[in-house]
Write a structure and sequence with these properties.
alpha/beta; seven-stranded mixed β-sheet; 15 helices
């Protein structure tokens, strides 16, 4: 499909909402993408978290590439602040080089000015900001209810599902009550949310469960998309593109253009490795440039650090050992050895450290750990 123009906020100051609605092609779905307005900087330092740019750019690209009309909106309107992000990522470059997208981002539509009847779906972008403003925004709750009750699709990713926790349908039931849902997990908050988590009113996983949601999750920073009818939620940033793709399909588009991003592909390779090591090795060897080996290494380190079962430790060791042929670091060697110790396998830990000592003979931490075995 041809790329459809993004509806920029400046139009709303020139013509009536009715005129805009008339101008939107009736045969193309229209999705509202919502960003947090909470972000704030003082003297170049972030004092309040905002939205996740990676999630905006990935989801926007999915919608745009599949011919879907997009409106960017936020509680305060205008230009919201994104959390720190890597501008060199391919999906961020695509968004930054899209003049229409950047124009819309610089002047997002204020939520209070919108009518849910104008949209076929709503997608809530994550980041820490939604935990402070979107979860309690009455106008957003109204729009989500209106869109859902007119058979529209509701999607959210990472911390974006915070916007769903207080949404009530016309019958008084919470939207998520009795429905399968996910979002940034308590374990992921423990691993990655230390800076802002103490200021949260609640943990997202806990609140979704409290509201009656049937919370689903995959392992730490793995890809999980939960589809319960017209309610579609993604666990973390690496679930963004697949969450948006699921929304596109739910909107009735059958021939879906799916993007391929190196970080998402790397997470999926790790998941395949946990299920079928031989298949994962063969897939990697077929196209190694498709994957980010340093990211895979760090994923293995975090999987080991926060493992709560022997199987999770085994998977972490398998992932880190697999990556070592392409990328190695003393941290990886030490993490593998510590994982073996947690498996009560001191002999394997010592053997691993002896090999590591040959590669890093001056590393004090490797020497110190060897001395304890």
């Amino acid at each position: 499909m041809m790329k459809r123009p993004l509806i920029v906020a400046s139009l709303w100051s020139l013509v009536s909402a009715g005129a805009i609605n008339s101008a939107i092609a009736a045969d193309e779905p229209h999705v509202l993408m919502v960003l947090s307005s909470y972000g704030k900087q003082v003297d170049g330092k972030t004092t309040q978290p905002g939205f996740e740019f990676d999630e905006l750019s990935k989801a926007y690209q999915v919608f745009s590439n599949n011919g879907i009309q997009v409106t960017l909106a936020s509680p305060a309107g205008g230009q919201p602040l994104a959390d720190e992000y890597n501008k060199d990522k391919s999906y961020n470059q695509a968004f930054l080089n899209d003049q229409q997208a950047m124009s819309a981002l610089s002047d997002t539509v204020k939520l209070a000015s919108l009518n849910g009847q104008s949209f076929d779906g709503v997608f809530i972008v994550g980041g820490k900001g939604p935990m402070f403003d979107l979860h309690q925004d009455n106008e957003l709750q109204r729009l989500i209810r209106e869109i859902y009750e007119q058979q529209g699709v509701v999607g959210a990713v990472c911390h974006g599902p915070a916007a769903l926790v207080d949404v009530k349908l016309s019958n008084g039931d919470y939207l998520v009550d009795g429905r399968r849902v996910n979002g940034f997990t308590n374990l992921e908050e423990t691993a990655f949310g230390k800076k802002w988590r103490p200021q949260f009113e609640f943990l997202l996983e806990d609140k979704l469960k409290e509201r009656g949601g049937l919370f689903e999750q995959d392992g730490l920073m793995l890809n999980q998309v939960t589809i319960d009818g017209r309610l579609i939620t993604g666990q973390n940033p690496f679930s963004t593109a697949d969450t948006a793709v699921a929304m596109v399909r739910a909107l009735g588009i059958e021939e879906v253009s799916e993007p391929v991003y190196k970080d998402d592909q790397s997470v999926k390779l790790a998941e395949l490795l946990f299920r079928d090591k031989a298949a994962a090795v063969a897939q990697f060897n077929k196209s190694p440039d498709t994957y980010d080996v340093q990211m895979l290494a760090m994923l293995g380190v975090y999987q080991a650090k926060f493992a709560t079962t022997q199987l999770q430790l085994h998977h972490a060791i398998e992932l880190m050992t697999f990556v070592q042929s392409q990328f190695n670091h003393p941290m990886i060697e030490l993490t593998i050895a510590k994982a073996h110790v947690r498996q009560n396998n001191q002999a394997e830990a010592k053997s691993s450290l002896l090999r590591a000592q040959k590669a890093y003979p001056d590393n004090a931490k490797i020497k110190a750990m060897l001395a304890t075995l």
